[in-house]
Write a structure and sequence with these properties.
The protein has 177 residues and is an alpha+beta fold. The protein is built from three helices and eleven strands.
Length: 177
């Protein structure tokens, strides 16, 4: 699911570019490139650690390109084969506590970025669907966003989350594309 989530986040950033800014000293810096950091858990002697490799120019990649980039970076992160440049330059981050079964989480912003998207467990759930309030089973997840209130307000973050939701739903519903 990660390439679809990255693609949806990129669409939200394009519509709400303030999410792609950073704070440098007392200045807000607006970033042109969309470089998505992907938090990768690394098992260590005393639990887990995280490293955040970056998919540079994520807005220029197809779904297949995003899948290849994410899988390559995560694999090399786990084998400690990333270069320093591959963990620098992120403009927004995705973290996925759902891989461990968490339904939701409260991600901490990867400074100097101003926003981070959290993805809960992706699982089948019973939902009310379609006209007539019929019951169906759908693949669902809870998403959260943490943001720096010095730069991003709640309305902007909520509207960006709506873009993510609509894009993700649109991958399976042609009328929403």
């Amino acid at each position: 699911f990660m390439p679809f989530i990255i693609k949806a986040l990129v669409a939200a950033v394009k519509e709400w570019p303030i999410l792609n800014a950073s704070v440098w000293n007392d200045q807000i810096v607006y970033k042109k490139d969309i470089n998505v950091g992907i938090a990768v858990a690394l098992q260590q002697d005393r639990g887990f650690g995280l490293i955040v490799p970056v998919i540079k120019h994520a807005d220029e990649l197809s779904l297949v390109g995003l899948a290849r980039a994410a899988n390559d970076l995560a694999g090399r992160a786990r084998t400690k084969k990333l270069s320093p440049e591959e963990v620098q330059g992120g403009t927004i981050t995705i973290t996925n506590p759902g891989v461990f079964g968490s339904v939701a989480g409260t991600p901490i912003i990867n400074q100097p970025q101003v926003a981070i998207l959290g993805v809960g467990a992706i699982e089948k759930r019973v939902k009310v669907v379609g006209p007539g309030d019929s019951i169906g089973v759908r693949t669902c997840a809870y998403f959260s966003i943490s943001y720096d209130h010095r730069v991003v307000d709640g309305a902007t973050a909520d509207h960006a989350m709506l873009v993510v939701k609509e894009k993700l739903e649109g991958f399976s519903d042609p009328s929403l594309k």
